[in-house]
Automatic annotation (TrEMBL):
InterPro entries: UPF0478. This is DUF948 domain-containing protein. It comes from the Bacteria. It holds the Pfam family DUF948. Keywords: Coiled coil, Membrane, Transmembrane, Transmembrane helix. The chain crosses the membrane at residues 6-25.
């Protein structure tokens, strides 16, 4: 019976050694896995830093572009205001020409003889001016 006790103790010791060996192997595999995870996270951190830097640069450029667009828009507003002023000036000039034309027409209708004399004098002046 004593031998059975020794055999049982040896089997138990061998089982304990086998369990310890598998536990050590499992810990080594877990260590390698954790090392790979750490490397992956380190690489991911570097990539995220690069993305952050590029995003910051892109935002800076976008803000500069938006400021430039606002400045140009403001300048264009001034240009359109100036064009509107020119349009109003041309409109006023056209009205003045219409009034002058109406005045000349009325004067020509009142005194056709003076009108024809004025036309002759105008033609003579134009001929003299062209000869110069």
């Amino acid at each position: 019976m004593e031998i059975i006790g020794y055999i049982a103790a040896i089997i138990a010791a061998l089982a304990f050694v086998i369990v310890v060996i598998y536990f050590v192997i499992t810990l080594k595999v877990a260590k390698q896995t954790l090392h790979n995870v750490a490397n992956t996270l380190e690489s991911l951190d570097k990539q995220m830093q690069g993305i952050t830097d590029e995003t910051t640069q892109l935002l800076t450029k976008t803000n500069k572009l938006a400021d430039d667009m606002n400045q140009k828009s403001t300048k264009l507003n001034g240009l359109f205001d100036g064009a509107r002023g020119i349009g109003e000036t041309v409109k006023d000039f056209n009205q003045s020409l219409k009034q002058l034309t109406n005045s000349v027409s009325k004067a020509a209708e009142k005194d056709p003889e003076k009108t024809s004399q004025a036309i002759r004098w105008g033609s003579a002046l134009i001929d003299i001016w062209k000869k110069k």
